[in-house]
């Protein structure tokens, strides 16, 4: 029995609120139960130095948590003179995943930055950030196309992400904080809508996992990500 | 005529949403028109080293803006290895103002941190942060009293803040970004509910101001702050 | 009775020593009693990136205190990897105030940096820095005109600054450290020689202040600043 | 055909040189072909604050590259005032993996730091660091037992790591730099000697991977890691 | 012929102004011609962690230059988030040299920090700082003895320092900036009043120096340092 | 009697292993007994901004120690957000010394960076770094000439360095850590193969040294450096 009473293959209530803020080219609030992440996409002409003149665009991400998004207040990273290791790891993952959504060559020399800011945390913030970040990214691309900043329609594939894990010996989908903090294994899965893997990060926390446990977790992830693609389409439209 | 069509002494729509996040001891979303600031109060036992053993409590504030809270994306302070000068100035002002709300000696050795995070900016974020921060502070004190962490009822006075300025030669109340960026003079006023000043910061932007202009601006501020005290009381209760 | 025996509207002995150092384009040592600040103005061709090509000049300020300018040694900011919040606040204030002295458009694309370094502190260092900084600034402009770096005569107005406050219930002018550290209210006033305000920063330290107290403090400030304009003119000449 | 001429399931020449430096409690140079990493284990009494009094030990890792370990000189991290995101990610991975090797409760309140410094890089430095780091860790534990610093024999399981990937459409084992920089998918696998997974990190670089490609890569990893366990045992002894 | 017209073995005018600032336990302004350095000694009870409980005292130094102490404005180190390499080198040298003046064991557990701040630079700032720093140090020790903070009279030997060099092929004493910036060899010599060396740092700038040149430079240094000891005694008294 | 049993004028076993790493244009492992330093020279087109367009080249050095190169683990500088003062001092010394080896004007606009990384420390790491760094530098220059990046043959003179000191009252050559940590005087001497001094840095550690002691130390240094030139020539060839 899960603490939340959910079935092993049951997602939390997922909600996407588009246009959550008014200045960004793409903006969505994504909620997985009590986990709430603002995803804002900013479109900028120009690319980083290593791409100048390549004709290719760039997508990158930044991640942050409000100090009191968590049960116990965390120190604000801006006052510590650096981003922590966990933050850096997460924002690199979000950026890599979202770059897999778009043919950067077709994008042309523009940069899209996805800011993922957690205003309330209850487990699964990075997978929520990727899933919501994809929506903000598509909104920004549509915005750029409407304003003729992007002339072609770059080929894209939908990207979504969910966590799976083993809790009390049982593979489960979409861990909340209660489960995440006691899970024996924790795995984040990012897939595209062709059903292929973009990234898998599985970590044993005390209980090394077997081939069959891995297979069961990946099956759960595939199921959950399918539902997320539906949620994304409701907001973005048929594309 | 103001860009927003408001009368010179007219506030924007002000809205306070309590319990905006679920973990903090005090939490409110404050909106002044399009300006939206999350104010979270965190209660912690213990005080900074300079107050250890004094029997006195401490209240401090931190301020941040989401990178895309503004029309043009700002760099994230956590990635720049420091808080900017404007941020430091603002959070020092918020902290000083809110310390004036409570008798710190009666508070006992606890620390309350008020995090003010701007999720959308349209002028007046610091005065919104002080006005909303006072609400979050009172919620945290009530929480602490309910949990017997604070035994006495510390004497408090309500604190609110508003901006005034001179735009197109005319003194006006509660400047939005359009006005703020072109104002000849910009002044932030913080008052208590006894009608006295906690802090005044007036800056001429190109047009040094006279005694009579100062008097007119302070009169507008007093009027606007009176309305804010009503809004605060609706959320906090009669105290 | 004030600790120094001064009348409520009496300045400390004010002394300006021009050409205090030999390399800077403008240099003055300003003393308010035991408070001593070196103000050096450096003239540089070119402007910051945000003004390139605008034809407009720039004036900025930096502030520092020698570690043992104070009664108790402070840590050196250079060894702490950052300037403290108070330092940042003060140097932003000095810069804003001195930019109000000169028509930057007429200055042309040059930058003048005013370094204000406190070698001995006894209260009122920021107002001394502004008052002395104005002198160094005028010297640098005269130097630039003599060397034909500035071709026009930019319109300027004299700027001076003084602190006022309420000590033991009494409004007083030009607080020294003894008064400053126990004042109920502390206010820094910057005015131009047309008698208008450039900036007002008043902070209640435990005793919120009334309209009439504010009026009395501003009257004292106006009186003191008048004397400072005379002292400045003795050094700069009739202009 | 692989650039090195190796078969798809063929490791590079792996060499472990114990006691490579003389001061550390555990020290080994590990070579995978041209990749060379010094792994030094340092034993220290005491644990980080969050474990004080818990009776439990701690294992952590740091990772660095000599500036000219790579084909093009990299900037030295010590001169950049921070470790880069890649470095932080890698050293967190090494630390997590090696903590899975030892029952920290049985270790008692000691800390072992594993420094992994790359003196020459040709792909696979993080997996070499984990595989060599395990050897240095065991040497340090044996040293501590010989010196009676650790009284019990903490339960351990061997840990080793290898990279696999898809190059030119073909799953291959132990990618060198030539392969790594052009691979369609890159995966790092860490396993214990019971044949279970400690961590899996697979990233599609342009070519999302299927379930069957994943299965084939994991099979190659299992094969390679088996050989690494033999190499480790030759140096550590039967344990 | 030297640019200043001095004889090869002639010092610049050396002037020591005691009690230059009013808060420090020791304070002197030292001038070598146009080089002017404020040396403030701060006495503090307690010692750094590595000396706690040792019964031994500590002497350390910090060095800084006002941004416009030089002909061209330098960036302020506090705004660059670090002290430069030259600064660190110099303050380590000053600290080492002054520790050689006092028997730290007899000093007892107190710390004396010597702040050397250059307000005007014309070559030789580090040797001026050492020579003036010794005076400030002795004043602080006398102050501490008068206040019974130091009970014994710690054994001391006078320390002074001068630069020598080879300019236009000629060994000369006490280089000013004109000479320093073109010298073939530059050497800083620190000696005690027993005629022995505390530190020698000689650097060839383009012209490696011979044994006989070294001997001649050391002879000049010995001569100059003898004069400095007289100047120090005039200020400190016979000791 | 020295702790190592060596005669006062006896070097430790010195060994130079060329091509120690495979990517750098110059690479050597230098060993002085247990002291082991990797010296890698990296050749780069272009020069720092202050030399752009001058036609002159640049040589600089960086120095680091592996955390466990020492008996007790040191904190990694990259995790401390800065290089320590000792590191900065040493790398500036190495850079200055090696610039004296080459006529930078004849080098043309290329930069050579010498990375000196200590993998095992037992005293004398900076003198080993200079002596080995010279070899790596010459290899890089030969590499650049072979590849026609440098067209002329820049005039060079060999540079080597050794430490001398006074231990137990006796001048000795090439101090190891046991001697270094208890020496009364410690001196680093850098010479060229014309027998002239490039740099002398002598520091009294508790025992100020006399003229005759200085003379004896310099004589020992000259003897030791002569042997080092032979070792260098064996690796570099006749030049």
From TrEMBL, chains A, B, C, D, E, F:
It catalyses: tRNA(n+1) + phosphate = tRNA(n) + a ribonucleoside 5'-diphosphate. One of its GO terms (molecular function) is tRNA binding. It holds the Pfam family RNase_PH. Residues 10-140, 159-222 form the Exoribonuclease phosphorolytic domain. Phosphate binds at residues 86, 124-126. The keyword tRNA processing applies. Keywords: Nucleotidyltransferase, RNA-binding, rRNA processing, Transferase, tRNA processing, tRNA-binding. It comes from the Bacteria. Its EC number is 2.7.7.56. GO terms for biological process: rRNA 3'-end processing; rRNA catabolic process; tRNA processing. Coiled coil: none annotated. Belongs to the RNase PH family. Homohexameric ring arranged as a trimer of dimers. Phosphorolytic 3'-5' exoribonuclease that plays an important role in tRNA 3'-end maturation. Removes nucleotide residues following the 3'-CCA terminus of tRNAs; can also add nucleotides to the ends of RNA molecules by using nucleoside diphosphates as substrates, but this may not be physiologically important. Probably plays a role in initiation of 16S rRNA degradation (leading to ribosome degradation) during starvation. This is Ribonuclease PH.
């Amino acid at each position: 029995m899960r603490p939340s009473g959910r079935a092993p293959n049951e997602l939390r209530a997922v909600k996407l609120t588009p246009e959550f803020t008014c200045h960004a080219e793409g903006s969505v609030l994504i909620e997985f139960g009590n986990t709430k992440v603002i995803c804002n996409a900013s479109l900028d002409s120009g690319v980083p130095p290593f791409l100048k003149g390549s004709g290719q665009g760039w997508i990158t991400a930044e991640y942050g948590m409000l100090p009191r998004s968590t049960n116990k207040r965390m120190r604000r990273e801006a006052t510590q003179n650096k981003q922590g290791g966990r933050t850096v790891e997460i924002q690199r993952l979000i950026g890599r995943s979202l770059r897999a959504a778009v043919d950067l060559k077709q994008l042309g020399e523009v940069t899209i930055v996805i800011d993922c800011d957690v205003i309330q945390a209850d487990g699964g913030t990075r997978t929520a950030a990727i899933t919501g970040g994809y929506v903000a990214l598509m909104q920004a691309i549509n915005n750029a196309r409407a304003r003729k900043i992007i002339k072609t329609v770059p080929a894209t594939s939908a990207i979504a992400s969910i966590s799976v894990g083993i809790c009390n010996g049982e593979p489960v989908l979409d861990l909340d904080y209660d489960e995440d903090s006691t899970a024996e294994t924790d795995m984040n899965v990012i897939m595209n809508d062709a059903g292929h893997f973009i990234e898998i990060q599985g970590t044993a926390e005390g209980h090394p996992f077997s081939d069959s446990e891995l297979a069961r977790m990946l099956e759960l992830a595939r199921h959950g990500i399918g539902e997320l693609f539906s949620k994304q389409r409701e907001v973005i439209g048929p594309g």
